[in-house]
Amino acid sequence: MTFSKxxxxxxxxxxxxxxxxxxxxxxxxxxxxNPLGIPADVNLLSDNDPNVRSATAxxxxxxxxxxxxxxxxxxxxAQSEGELPPAELQRVRMQVLRNLIDETLQIQDANAQELxxxxxxxxxxxxxxxxxxxxxDPARMDSYLLGIGSSPASLKRQIxxxxxxxxxxRRNISPFVNVSEEExxxxxxxxxxxxxxxxxxLGEIYLSATIENREAVLENANQIVAQLQQGxxxxxxxxxxxxxxxxxxxxxxxxxxxxxxxxEMATRARQMSPxxxxxxxxxxxxxxxxxxxxxxxxxxxxxxxxMLSLKQISxxxxxxxxxxxxxxxxxxxxDAVARMRGCGDANAVAASIGAEVVENEIRARAxxxxxxTPLLSIQVGQTTxxxxxxxxxxxxxxLCGRDDPQSAAAATIEQIIEEKENERxxxxxxxxxxxxxxxxxxxxx
Length: 445
Description:
Layout: H1 3-12, E1 57-59, E2 62-64, H2 66-80, H3 86-112, H4 119-133, H5 138-147, H6 152-172, H7 181-193, E3 198-208, H8 214-229, H9 234-241, E4 252-256, H10 263-269, E5 277-283, E6 286-297, E7 307-315, H11 323-339, H12 343-352, E8 356-363, H13 369-376, E9 387-389, E10 393-403, H14 413-439, E11 442-444
Antiparallel strand pairs: 1-2, 1-11, 3-4, 3-6, 5-6, 7-8, 7-10, 9-10
């Protein structure tokens, strides 16, 4: 912000026109811990709280309205599958405003470089999203967006920003990132020497923090975790809140080895199971919320890629059943399953007690984590322990066939080059965006 703009802001607040009684405050010395020399007993010159600031802004002359923010917030709330408390909603609004500012800067930069995004491109991408979620019917998606309090225009604006930023990166960053074949061969050799080493596919939400604002950032992080534990979409929250370069891809770090991570992240990741969420915890410069998407062993076939032929045998319960009747039916079911002599006998025994049998083929990793280990530990003709509830029914899975995966193919030189180039492009893109923010003229209402 320039000095003239700073004094203009003071005038807008009424601070330049009237005298203010200033209280004495300690003079702080600039130190490593306090590089700005800010005194500990700060006296604010107005009652304005930046956390309840009106969520509108003017970015290099482009207006972001409160309606723009409302519509984008509605998308996030819908993905969270629940109501947000007022304090959480206000925090979400401010983060969404920051995201809209970045999006505006990205679109402006693309236009300045004569890389405009056409309406036809946006409509095509919008139709692709509809095809993935609404049976290729954009009208249904229009109705859904309006129904949750958002709008097609809001999603199309986000799409425009993503395409614009991709175009900017493709022109200004990608051509200048190169990974040599020699470097890729060294990576191949390293991977061969580390065959069998575990790799972890992690999702991260990183929030920068200082000594001064750590408590506030920690509170925000805990609120994010609470929303995720209630069913919030990790990818959506990472895109909206994470300050890491991976925010653009929903916080996905890809498969990494633990020795490449900060020690705090590596320690926790080592103890996690796929689908588990941990955090927030401290790392250099801030806090991290971490989600383990998957893990694998380098160069080894993953047993969870096995294709399983299963019979699901299940019973339901009359809602009017007494506890005694329910327990008796569960016991009858358990005894019948124990009598089954393999998959060929399952249907007849199930029919004798009024149980239902459904056959299917499914990859092990597509099953809930709690069922993967039991199924991969049994032989053909055996069943998992019973699971379920009175409301949903009790069931077992019987293994009737298993096709194990072949050994994982080694990565090619081309794949490694692409991986490393993408990683470097993401880091440079984040620096590029920081420069756009630094040069921007932004005014808030």
